[in-house]
Amino acid sequence: MAGIEASAQGQESLTELGEAAVTEFWRADSAAARAALVDEILASQTSVEELLALFQAGPMYDADVPTGEQLRQRINAEGTEYPYMLYVPEDYDPNQSYPLEFVLHGGVGRPRTDAEESFWQRSYERVAQPGRIIVIPFAWAEAYWWQDSQSENIPAILNELKATYNVDENRVTMTGISDGGTGAYFFAFKQPTQWAAFLPYIGHPGVLRSKQSGGGYRLYFENLMNKPLYIVNGENDRLYPAESLRSFIQILQDVDVPHTWTVIEEGGHNTSWLPDYQAVIEQFKADNPRDPLPANIQWVADRTDRYNRNHWIEINEMTEADRPSLLQVTRTGNQFEVDARGVNRFTLLLSPNAVDFELPLRVVVNGESKFDGMVEQSEETLLDYATQDLDRTMLFTAKLNVSLVD
After folding, report:
1. Which fold has domain 68-287?
2. Cα–Cα distance between 396 and 273 in angstroms, integer?
3. In terms of DSSP bridges, do strands 167-177 and 133-137 run parallel, antiparallel, or are they unpaired?
4. Residue 177 CB partners (closer than 8 Å, separation 6+)
5. Phi, psi at residue 320, to the nearest 5°?
């Protein structure tokens, strides 16, 4: 009995060590800092099942955190400062999770100034809602919303906030105004995993295709299929009149992208209409939480160093460098039906909330069986993707690399 008791005490101490390490991991201020803690967590000898439970529970959030309006900044690895305004409800309660909304401002072509405080004040007044955390980041002429620097910065700010505040990962939305609306289109087309829905106001997706505007992207409508859009344009907008988006909206309708398009009669390039639509917009957000592990998913990529992942699928190697690759995957239990075009290699990220690891998995690609067998979970995979995502509802304990070439 003494030996059994000692063994139980030893296991309890290992679990406590794992809990402490996971909390430190969660509260780290960057992905690099979290990665540095991986060896410590692995050394705790916590099983993958126990580790998964710890990550699903998340940390114990502190009550003594800043609330109200705060001007902050994030500094990237190169030392560039990215200011952002944060609003946390004054009655913030760490025991409940909060919706969070990013609001991307317009006028990104202006030079950066020293008085960053001015970039957010009017925007916040237009979008503030009780019971929600609001983030208004900053863009300028050298850091448009649709450039690689911001594609790294925005999710990093989100994870920085998730480390401190109890954010509902499945109710994180992105609203954009003017150039910010164009920025919301960018994240919808290129980097949608973290978001529940996108609300582009008085913007235009065509800007993303122009190299002169800092874009030059190819846009693939398959990438919009899993995330709803709430689009608003003014009939008489001097920059992007509603009529100039009609062909884009027609394609959304033709391919069944979930969307709502509102045209403001005689509306200009402004958001004076917003108070009249606020209740409808809030209902749209409430009706469209994110599904972190959708059973049907697709992605088109034209590069593999970034913009190559959607939730639990990644395109790792393209057949031809100058032609896009397409993955369409349907998961039914442990069976994966894959349509792959222009893809040499891809990865399926596997969650115990979606598959049963006690049974074999089968992957059929273009009608041909490519895998049929057992898959082992690993602490390393769990930690790798938790480092990137910091998401209690989207945790992966295994990955299956599939090759379509000999």
Report:
1. Rossmann fold (3.40.50)
2. 42
3. unpaired
4. 103, 104, 105, 106, 123, 126, 201, 202, 203, 271
5. -130, 135
The residues, ordered by sequence, that sit 6+ positions from 65 with a Cβ below 8 Å of its Cβ are 88, 92, 94, 164, 165
Q: What is the pLDDT of residues 363-398, one digit of tens each?
A: 999 999 999 999 999 999 999 999 999 999 999 999
- Alpha-carbon torsion 2, 7, 10, 11, what sign? negative
3-state SS class at 280: helix
Helix, strand, or coil here: 281?
helix
Residue recorded with tokens 């909206």: 249
CB atoms inside a 10 Å sphere around CB 193: 19
Residue-wise pLDDT for 161-185, tens only, equals 999 999 999 999 999 999 999 999 9
User: Among positive and negative, which fits the CA dihedral 119, 260, 240, 221?
Assistant: positive
Token representation of residue 107: 């006028």
* pLDDT at res. 406: 73
Could you tell me the strand order of the sheet in which 98-104 lies? 68-75, 81-88, 133-137, 98-104, 167-177, 197-201, 229-234, 259-264
The DSSP string of 364-394 is EETTEEEEEE-----HHHHHHHHHHH--TTS
Residues in the chain: 406
Closest Cα partner for 137 from 171, 99, 108? 108
Tokens coding 38: 């991986």
- Alpha-carbon Rg for the chain, nearest whole angstrom, is 22
Among the residues of 262-309, which ranges form H helices?
Answer: 274-287
> In which residue are the tokens 């442990």 written?
334
Asked whether the whole model's pTM tops 0.85, one would answer yes
What are the Cα distances from residue 377, in Å, to 312, 350, 358, 383, 400? 15, 9, 10, 12, 10
